[in-house]
Recover the amino acids of this structure.
């Protein structure tokens, strides 16, 4: 009996797997722990493998300074990594860790067409393979400059809503467990078992936050859509694993 309990506990904690209960509840893996099947670069037909690789059961974003160079010495063009499939109402679970000073994120509600038309998340000369969408921020809060801004810290709805004081962030180099819930106009960010962000699209509060954000000039940015889930290429070395989703 004790051995059975220990085995079940191991199954529940094994990266890149689904428990029987998760399968019954409708969860599916977006990353199998071995390949990038089901993913492609935003604006590409394939994965930009000079920037994204699988290492030790995790998706690794290679730091821009370590990617291959083209003939004139410039780094090979990379870009965000997006799911081939798109999602409307869903719950997303994933684990992530950053290296010292690193910045990245998981984006959702992403329209590839809007992202390419607007020139990417920079919106003014930004990288064309960068997604526009709501972002679950991933950050080394202590070392990165963005850590000085509450709405840019880890687990924030980037540039819109800061995480609350229930947030507990693991030390750099350790795995964090995160969830995104997005159903109808309702959204939630969770970090290590605590709900740290909650919002409702179409409310006066959200409209005011959008109007004061970097997204204010992008038509339709704040509208709910069936969109892709995206891992951000911010140029830093970061890792993702146990990425799973279920429709709501």
């Amino acid at each position: 009996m004790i051995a059975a309990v220990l085995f079940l506990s191991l199954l529940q904690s094994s990266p890149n797997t689904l428990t029987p209960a998760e399968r019954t509840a409708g969860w599916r893996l977006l990353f199998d722990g071995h390949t990038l099947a089901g993913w492609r670069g935003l604006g590409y037909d394939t994965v930009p493998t000079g920037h994204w690789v699988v290492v030790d059961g995790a998706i690794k974003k290679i730091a821009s300074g370590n990617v291959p160079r083209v003939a004139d010495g410039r780094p090979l063009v990379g870009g965000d990594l997006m799911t081939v499939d798109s999602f409307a109402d869903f719950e997303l679970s994933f684990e992530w860790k950053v290296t010292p000073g690193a910045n990245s994120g998981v984006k959702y509600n992403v329209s590839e067409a809007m992202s390419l038309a607007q020139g990417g998340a920079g919106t003014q000369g930004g990288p064309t393979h960068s997604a526009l969408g709501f972002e679950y921020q991933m950050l080394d809060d202590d070392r990165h400059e963005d850590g000085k801004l509450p709405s840019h810290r880890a687990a924030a709805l980037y540039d819109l809503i800061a995480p609350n004081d229930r947030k507990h962030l693991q030390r750099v180099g350790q795995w964090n467990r995160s969830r995104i819930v997005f159903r109808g106009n309702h959204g939630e960010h969770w970090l290590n078992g605590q709900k740290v962000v909650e919002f409702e699209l179409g409310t006066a509060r959200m409209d005011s936050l959008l109007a004061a954000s970097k997204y204010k000039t992008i038509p339709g940015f704040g509208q709910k859509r069936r969109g892709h889930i995206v891992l951000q290429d911010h140029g830093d070395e970061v890792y993702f694993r146990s990425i799973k989703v279920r429709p709501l």
Summary: The chain has one domain: 27-247. The longest strand covers residues 238-247.
